[in-house]
Design goal:
Blueprint (H helix, E strand, L loop, with lengths): L38 H23 L9 H31 L6 H27 L12 H14 L11 H14 L4 H25 L4 H12 L8 H23 L5 H21 L2 H17 L6 H29 L44 H16 L4 H22 L1 H4 L8 H40 L16 H25 L11 H6 L32
Length: 570
């Protein structure tokens, strides 16, 4: 189902590609030593490195000797993770530098691929390791048996024992996964098992989003333009919902790219790709369905825009039919439940963000916002901050630079679709007295907005590469005539691509390390009215053997744990 691992989604159909057509290969696109190093083999190797790297820091964090409820201990733990993250990441960068220097750079591209995958895994492993520290000494998941955590634990235990869950509309895949994992590894104890899956799900976030974007972009670009924006959403409490969003965007873009190409492909790959996309979308729908609602109109627009009306409408229709058939085969039953039960399921819980200007989406404070002053923060331009201005400018620039590219247009359409759905639901909130989770469009708007900003850099770099390649023959001719070049290869004025790759990896390593530390600190136990209360409660719940967790405050615990969080809900 791979569309392209080399950024070819950005090449216009019907035009030649490659160096001969004025296109410079992506920094990690080519290299010798084929055979086992086929496209599929390289992707499998990248996947192995990414998932392996994601487990390193969580495993190391288990040996930390500190009190997770002590703030100085928390800071020391975060610093310890940052140190290990930086050293391991620098080893990956050093391997790329070494590959550049040895054997005339023969293995440079392979090293850059694996370093990109490794950094993606290390970054989410950092956040997972933060969760390990936050829960040291307690077997309970974040929030124990309270709130969403308690409901998920209860429903998973029910479905694992052949009983219906407490909510037919709740995504079934997380419940069945937790239920069966508990049976296999925890003797059916879904509460203790949920702690494992919170950590493992967080660790898998980086590798999954990296591999999803690798179907569209080259390794370094997938890390920079796909993985980095996703880390604004990484969540240790319920990692599956945000993971579905960051996977759904590249999968839907890849699907539109494939749809556009169906007119010139043979029937068998058309049907197989369609079925593959339908299957993947079905699995994502079973894991969390909300993002499909916000995205549907935008993706439909992009599909109609790039449908092969002239080159092969029959193949395009067959592709869509195969996708729909596979989707219904995987998730059709749950879809019917959503269509029937969803009409009667109402959300009447008005929380903090429901009282906020609906046009403000840059931060979602949840139902535990903590201490909040003037909100939203006052902006410089008509109350709008610089970040929002940059996002909207980048949306327009991305459409301008990538109007003929499904990558840019599909993401812009998903942003606009989520915006319209948000305003539609919010506009009916007073009349219906329901929320319908519209505030969760914050996450999709933020993610798509960040990607659009990254895409502007991506599209500009592609145009610069085009100009550089076009200038190469002229520079070579000038050199042959006795002229002198400047800067990097072929007198382009730029350093070589090896330096660009190494510099980018260093910058992304430090950026992801900083972001991962911040997202880890978000869940360090504290009684401050934010989501830090979730792991705090986990340390105050009596364990099933009747004793208190190791670091229970003053050695005190109870059946349900500290219930002070109820006073923070708003």
């Amino acid at each position: 189902m791979t569309v392209s691992t080399e950024g070819s989604a950005d090449v216009r159909p019907g035009t030649p590609s490659g160096p001969a057509a004025g296109h410079t290969p992506a920094p990690t696109d080519t290299g010798p030593g084929r055979g086992l190093r086929t496209r599929g083999g390289l992707l499998l190797l990248e996947a192995a490195v990414a998932f392996g790297a994601a487990l390193v820091l969580p495993v190391l964090a288990r040996s930390f000797k500190l009190d997770p409820l002590n703030r100085i201990a928390q800071v020391s733990g975060l610093a310890g993770l940052q140190l290990r993250f930086a050293l391991l990441g620098l080893l990956l960068v050093a391997a790329v530098v070494l590959a550049m220097r040895l054997r005339h750079g023969r293995h440079f591209d392979l090293a850059a691929r694996l370093a990109s995958a490794g950094i993606a895994g290390l970054a989410s492993g950092f956040v997972a390791a933060g969760a390990v520290i936050a829960l040291l000494g307690t077997p309970w998941p974040m929030f124990g048996l309270n709130g969403d955590s308690g409901r998920i634990v209860e429903w998973a235990h029910a479905v694992a024992n052949g009983r219906p869950s407490g909510s037919p509309v709740y995504p079934p895949l997380p419940l069945y996964t937790l239920g069966y994992y508990a049976e296999w590894f925890h003797g059916g104890n879904t509460a203790y098992a949920f702690k494992d899956l919170q950590i493992l799900g967080t660790a898998a976030f980086g590798p999954l989003v990296y591999l999803a974007w690798r179907t569209l972009l080259s390794p370094v670009r997938a890390l920079a333009f796909g993985v980095v924006p996703a880390f604004a959403l990484i969540d240790s409490y319920k990692p599956y919902s945000q993971t579905v969003l960051v996977l759904l965007v590249p999968v839907l873009v890849a699907m539109v790219v494939s749809l556009r190409r169906t007119g010139t492909e043979r029937w068998r790959p058309v049907l197989l790709k369609g079925a593959g996309f339908g299957t993947v979308l079905g699995v994502l729908f079973l894991a969390y369905s909300g993002w499909f609602l916000w995205s549907a109109a935008g993706v439909l627009f992009a599909a109609l825009l790039y449908f092969p009306w002239r080159t092969g409408p029959a193949k395009g229709a067959a592709f869509m039919a195969a996708s729909l058939g596979a989707f219904l085969l995987v998730a059709g039953r749950y879809l019917m439940v959503m269509l029937i039960e969803g009409q009667t399921t109402k959300d009447y819980n008005f929380r903090f963000d429901n009282f906020t200007d609906p046009a403000y989406y840059l931060m979602w404070r949840t139902d535990m916002p903590g201490k909040v002053g003037d909100w939203p923060p006052p902006g410089e331009f008509g109350g709008v901050g610089l970040f929002a201005l940059v996002t909207f400018v980048c949306l327009g620039a991305a459409i301008w630079l990538g109007l003929r590219k499904p990558l840019a247009v599909t993401i812009a359409a998903m942003f606009i679709s989520a915006w319209v759905m948000r305003m539609y639901i919010a506009s009916h909130m007073y009349e219906t007295q329901t929320v319908q989770l519209y505030t969760r469009t914050n996450n999709q708007l933020l993610y798509c907005g960040l990607i659009l900003c990254a895409l502007v850099a991506h599209l500009v770099s592609l145009r610069l590469a085009d100009r550089r390649s076009a200038a190469a023959p002229l520079s070579a001719a000038a050199g042959a005539a006795g002229g002198t070049g400047s800067g990097g290869p072929a007198g382009s004025g730029f350093p070589g691509r090896e330096g660009a790759v190494i510099g980018t990896l260093c910058a992304l390593l430090l950026l992801l390390g900083t972001v991962s530390s911040s997202m880890s600190d978000r869940y360090m136990p504290a009684q401050d009215g934010t989501y830090r209360i979730l792991p705090w409660v986990s340390h105050t719940i009596r364990m099933q053997d009747g004793t208190c967790p190791k670091f229970a405050p003053e050695g005190q615990c109870s059946k349900d744990g500290d219930q002070g969080w109820l006073s923070y809900i708003r």
